[in-house]
């Protein structure tokens, strides 16, 4: 009888510990997902504010993020802290005063979750802990795309202005002249370092530098054509009608 009681007690204790371990695992997974979601939300807010106020997202502070959140909710607890009830902005922050994401080195599952989120966005191989904390900048990828898109669009405008000056005010222009001026405009104004798209036809395709440059030129020329085609500006429409066969 004592043996049965001992066995039953042991099974109960085992069950309790098993249930506790399962719950802890589930809780960790949920918290890891929350970390990823919070990072995305903070990133979206920072880039929204950056575009709205024409600022670098890295200049957006935690206070500006909080000010952007809807009123009436405990947003600091939901987005800017971990899930512990004892956490405060000062002792358990997820977002520091500079608006960067912070994780303690010991919080392995959360750290892995955020690294998984970031692996295709920034190079995480060189990130190391400082004072047992990992700090991740938020919004860099989006900032870079936004800034590079502006450079591309500005370059398209410059190429169009060049073509307008070179072709629209001549009495006659030949097909050869148009082709030559288009090539000159594309070569002169292509923002090669700002064209960040992956031009591989297949994921495993290897592109040499010459072929990559040619694909970037084709992309940029198409952007010029697209700008002219969709514009309602009279001069751009006139230019498009003149050079569309050679674009």
Query: pLDDT average, as an integer?
Result: 80
Strand order of the largest sheet: 1-2
Fraction of residues in H or I helices = 55-70%
Overall number of domains: 2
User: What is the count of helical runs?
Assistant: 8
- Which band does the percent of strand residues land in? under 5%
Question: In terms of per-residue confidence, which ranges show pLDDT below 50 for 5 or more consecutive residues?
Answer: 13-24
Describe the structure.
Strands 1-2 form a two-stranded antiparallel ribbon. It contains 8 helices and 2 strands; from the N terminus they run αααβαβαααα. It folds into 2 domains: about 1-140, no CATH class; about 140-245, no CATH class. With about 250 residues, it is mostly helical. The protein has helices at about 1-55, 60-70, 75-80, 110-120, 140-165, 175-190, 210-230, 235-245; strands at about 100-105, 135.
Summarize the structure.
By secondary structure, the chain is mostly helical.
Question: Can you lay out the helices and strands and say which pair or pack?
Answer:
Blueprint: H1 2-53, H2 62-68, H3 75-80, E1 101-104, H4 108-118, E2 133-136, H5 140-167, H6 175-189, H7 209-230, H8 234-243
Helix pairs in contact: 1-4, 5-6, 5-7, 7-8
List keywords for this structure.
247 residues; mainly alpha; 2 domains; two-stranded antiparallel sheet; elongated
